[in-house]
């Protein structure tokens, strides 16, 4: 079946964060919204069908996650990433951000140091500071060909930290970490007894020519000192269903975590998240293949357009995710002037780079999981104002 990713869908007036909060976030209700990391594509037909069939039953009472649900996730991880995950390692969480925030609470105490690799997804910052823990920034380094981990800095930081939250693949810089990078990072963490929390929500959005490597799959010791979070939400546009999975090979860590989640009464989730995830994990391979080809086409279009028309905008082509991380510092404008120019003159709603860390000042993150017509319009607006 050929899927139509060019279809324009009106998402306004659906309590949609990306569209219906434009005035509040950008001070302009007319920006073209390309910020929140969900997709402007239809959720796959086979997922919608499964949800509709379940909705035809007249009772939406308490439910539980059965073995076939977890087996569908295990099958997907084995098929897509060659990672054999026993179902007993898995635990439900109501979203990846919620999951790693609960891990911060369950395994650290106020004042403990937690390492994040910035610039990085804003909830990484908030999960640490909002719980009274101390943020330690292992700042990524742009070597010219792309961002790399700062291992020299990490060696020193790991001596006093308790946890590292890994973004694998990385959002927003789009890196798909290599085996050697993950092994070196993991060895530093294991030597210093750090618990690694690996957010792998974008693992299924690795672009052609690259491969995702689950951190816990690389070494038995890594597996015993890590928690991996996975979800179908980014991949299949299911973010509103608040469903994800914690994968915890270590039995002791797993008990602590599942007890913590259960004590918060956060272990049940909703019926439709279960149904949608199971459908996606069992039927989604072909849809995903077509999606990745389409997103790669959008990335190629933007890359070619910027190179030809806006050479002051610097970027690296992402290896994973459907976002691009664009550097506007070449214009010599202040952070506020850039923001005003982007939101009021170009009328574009991109993520503000400084929200990902101080290293993001002068950058914007642009979401390319949208029809090509939207991408083309965004580039026209950029050229009109910044060209």
Describe this entry's structure for a reader:
This protein is an alpha/beta fold and 387 residues long. Helix content is 42%, strand content 13%. A seven-stranded mixed beta sheet has the order 2-10-9-8-7-3-4, sandwiched between helices. Strands 11-14-13 form a three-stranded antiparallel beta sheet, with no helix packed on it. Strand 5 and strand 6 form a beta hairpin. The longest helix is centred in the C-terminal third of the chain and has 25 residues, at 285-309. It is globular. The two termini are 40 Å apart. The relative contact order is 0.17. The model has no long low-confidence stretch (mean pLDDT 97).
Number of helical stretches of at least 4 residues: 15
* Unreliable segments of 5+ consecutive residues: none
Using only C-alpha atoms, the radius of gyration works out to: 21 Å
Q: Bin the strand percentage.
A: 5-15%
Count the strands?
A: 14
What spatial order of strands do you see in the largest sheet?
Answer: 2-10-9-8-7-3-4
**Largest sheet entry:** 7 strands, mixed
Properties at a glance:
single chain; 387 residues; alpha/beta; 7-stranded mixed sheet; 3-stranded antiparallel sheet; globular
Short précis:
The protein is an alpha/beta fold and 387 residues long. It has helices spanning 17-20, 22-26, 45-55, 67-81, 96-107, 122-129, 151-157, 179-191, 220-224, 233-236, 251-263, 271-283, 285-309, 335-345, 372-386, and strands spanning 32-33, 90-93, 113-116, 134-137, 141-142, 147-148, 163-167, 195-199, 226-230, 244-247, 323-327, 348-349, 351-352, 363-367.
């Amino acid at each position: 079946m050929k899927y139509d990713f060019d279809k324009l869908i009106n998402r306004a007036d659906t309590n949609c964060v990306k569209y219906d909060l434009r005035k509040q976030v950008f001070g302009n209700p007319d920006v073209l919204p390309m910020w929140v990391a969900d997709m402007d594509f239809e959720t796959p037909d086979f997922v919608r069908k499964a949800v509709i069939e379940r909705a035809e039953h007249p009772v939406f009472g308490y439910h539980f996650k059965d073995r076939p649900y977890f087996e569908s996730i295990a099958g997907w991880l084995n098929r897509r990433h060659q990672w054999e995950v026993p179902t007993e390692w898995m635990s439900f969480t109501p979203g990846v951000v919620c999951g790693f925030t609960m891990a911060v609470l369950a395994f650290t105490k106020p004042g403990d140091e937690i390492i994040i690799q910035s610039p990085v997804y804003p909830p990484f910052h908030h999960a640490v500071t909002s719980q009274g823990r101390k943020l330690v920034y292992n700042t990524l380094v742009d070597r010219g060909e792309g961002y790399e981990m700062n291992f020299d800095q990490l060696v020193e930081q790991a001596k006093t930290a308790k946890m590292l939250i890994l973004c694998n693949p990385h959002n927003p810089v789009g890196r798909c970490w290599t085996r050697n990078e993950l092994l070196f990072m993991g060895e530093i963490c294991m030597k210093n007894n750090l618990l690694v929390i690996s957010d792998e929500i974008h693992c299924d959005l690795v672009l052609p020519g690259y491969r995702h490597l689950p951190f816990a799959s690389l070494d038995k010791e890594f597996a015993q000192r890590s928690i991996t979070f996975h979800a179908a939400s980014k991949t299949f546009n299911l973010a509103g269903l608040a469903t994800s999975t914690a994968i915890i090979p270590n039995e002791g860590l797993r008990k602590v975590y599942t007890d913590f989640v259960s004590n918060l009464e956060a272990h049940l989730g909703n019926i439709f998240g279960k149904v949608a995830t199971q459908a996606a994990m069992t039927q989604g391979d072909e849809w995903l293949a077509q999606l990745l080809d389409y997103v790669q086409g959008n990335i190629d279009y933007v890359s070619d357009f910027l190179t030809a028309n806006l050479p002051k905008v610097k970027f690296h082509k992402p290896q994973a995710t459907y976002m691009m991380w664009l550097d506007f510092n070449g214009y010599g404008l202040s952070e506020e002037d850039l923001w005003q120019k982007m939101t009021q003159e170009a009328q574009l709603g991109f993520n503000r780079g400084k929200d990902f860390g101080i290293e993001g000042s002068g950058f914007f993150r642009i979401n390319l999981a949208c029809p090509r017509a939207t991408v083309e319009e965004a580039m026209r607006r950029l050229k009109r104002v910044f060209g």
